[in-house]
């Protein structure tokens, strides 16, 4: 294991290796610095938890920081024996803005808190923007007194505000854990050795051979499976601490089915900010499976892991109590409307038997890959807890 490095040295390395993605965000905009710090402590928590739970003390030291970009993206790298995870500040801003606007609308999840007192300004029903720089500028303007506030709106009802924050927590944790999995399962070292590809950038299609892309998709699926299973089981375990700090949270996350609904709503929104539709003919040329398909797999994986720890949650998906139609409704309430052609294209692609065949091919590839990954992995690929199989 490498010796601990001085923080200044890590900052410089981070800035250099991720220069193409905006480099290190410094200084953080003062109005946003506090929100960013909350997520930084989450990474520290997850690394400690994963090291203890998986008994993988040899996981390299991991340095986390923000990228100076308003887009939604995340990157991971392993350099000189250290892990580096970067998240764009745009990811935090886009997700926070999304959940606060949703819960500020009286028709969204009306059974949470007192929804009748909410009102969402027409100007904030502007759908989803994947570029925080432009929407922040649009919302604040130069003379707006809200310039020093992070969020354009916050739900009036405290419970709805908590719900929005918990969704943001679940979504951001998913992103962080996904990157942590790329380091933990040795994906980065494996790709570097076999494909000379040192970075994993989440939202960028790499042009490569079909085998390279199927391999990449298999690794992404593995990272999603980890992020979902570790994220949801961690969310369920950690909630007692949140309830101790704020007893009113008991009505939101006091029992497992309710807490799972919050988590699935948050993670579901993360994937739903991207178009659900995809081209069935170009599945093999992408670095990731389509977001809508990743969401299905992740929710299923999270629930499978959770059912092992909490057996009574086993049939949640079938029982209908995890109704994610609420999410589609919430998205439409903030002005995110899918064109009917997008919906019908998605439905046709989703039904196409070639999708199922492709997903099976990616799963097979992951099974084949396991022995090759083994020398690079810090986690146990065979008996891995929390997840040894891709769902
Ligand atoms: Zn990834």
SSE order and pairing:
Layout: H1 7-17, H2 33-54, E1 62-67, E2 74-79, E3 82-88, H3 89-103, H4 132-140, H5 158-184, H6 187-195, E4 200-201, H7 210-245, H8 250-253, H9 256-272, H10 291-309, H11 316-319, H12 325-333, H13 340-351, H14 353-373
Parallel strand pairs: 1-3
Antiparallel strand pairs: 2-3, 2-4
Helix pairs in contact: 2-5, 3-5, 5-7, 5-9, 7-9, 7-10, 7-14, 9-10
Which key features would you list for this structure?
binds zinc ion, disordered C terminus, mainly alpha
Write up what this structure looks like.
- The chain has helices at 7-17, 33-54, 89-103, 132-140, 158-184, 187-195, 210-245, 250-253, 256-272, 291-309, 316-319, 325-333, 340-351, 353-373; strands at residues 62-67, 74-79, 82-88, 200-201.
- Mean pLDDT is 87; it is low at 384-391.
- Helices cover 55% and strands 5% of the residues.
- The protein has 14 helices and four strands.
- The relative contact order is 0.12.
- It is mainly alpha-helical.
- The protein has one domain (7-92, 157-388).
- Helix 2 (33-54) packs across helix 5 (158-184).
- It has a four-stranded mixed beta sheet with strand order 1-3-2-4, sandwiched between helices.
- The longest helix has 36 residues, at 210-245.
- The site of zinc ion has 6 residues, from helix 5 and helix 7.
């Amino acid at each position: 294991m490498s010796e601990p490095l001085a923080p200044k040295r890590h900052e410089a390395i981070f800035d250099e290796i991720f220069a193409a993605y905006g480099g290190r965000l410094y200084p953080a905009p003062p109005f946003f610095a506090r929100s960013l710090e909350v997520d930084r402590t989450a990474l520290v928590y997850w690394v400690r938890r994963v090291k203890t739970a998986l008994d993988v003390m040899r996981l390299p030291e991991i340095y986390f920081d923000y990228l100076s970009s308003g887009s939604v993206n995340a990157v991971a790298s392993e350099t000189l024996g250290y892990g580096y995870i970067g998240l764009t500040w745009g990811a935090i801003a886009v997700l926070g803005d999304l959940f606060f606007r949703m819960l500020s609308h009286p028709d969204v999840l009306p059974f949470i808190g007192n929804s009748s007192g909410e009102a969402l300004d027409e100007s904030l029903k502007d759908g989803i923007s994947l570029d925080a720089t432009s929407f922040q500028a649009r919302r604040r303007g130069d003379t707006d007194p809200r310039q020093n506030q992070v969020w354009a709106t916050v739900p009036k009802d405290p419970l709805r505000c908590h719900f929005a924050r918990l969704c943001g927590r679940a979504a951001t944790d998913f992103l962080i854990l996904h990157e942590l999995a790329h380091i933990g399962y040795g994906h980065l070292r494996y790709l570097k050795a076999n494909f000379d590809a040192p970075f994993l950038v989440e939202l960028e299609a790499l042009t490569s051979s079909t085998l390279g892309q199927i391999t990449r998709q298999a690794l992404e699926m593995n990272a999603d499976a980890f992020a979902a299973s570790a994220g949801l089981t961690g969310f369920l375990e950690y909630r007692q601490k949140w309830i101790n700090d704020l007893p009113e949270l008991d009505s939101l996350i006091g029992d497992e089915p309710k807490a799972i609904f919050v988590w699935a709503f948050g993670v579901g929104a993360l994937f739903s900010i991207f178009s659900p539709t995809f081209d069935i003919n170009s599945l093999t040329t992408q670095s990731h499976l389509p977001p809508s398909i990743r969401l299905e797999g992740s929710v299923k994986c999270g629930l499978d892991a959770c059912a092992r720890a909490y057996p009574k949650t086993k049939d949640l998906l079938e029982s209908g109590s995890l109704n994610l139609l609420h999410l589609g409704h919430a998205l439409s309430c903030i002005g995110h409307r899918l064109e009917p052609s997008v919906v019908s294209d998605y439905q046709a692609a989703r039904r196409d038997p070639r999708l199922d065949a492709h997903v099976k091919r990616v799963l097979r590839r992951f099974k084949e890959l396991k022995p090759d990954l083994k020398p690079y992995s810090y986690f146990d690929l065979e008996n891995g807890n929390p997840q040894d199989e891709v769902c």
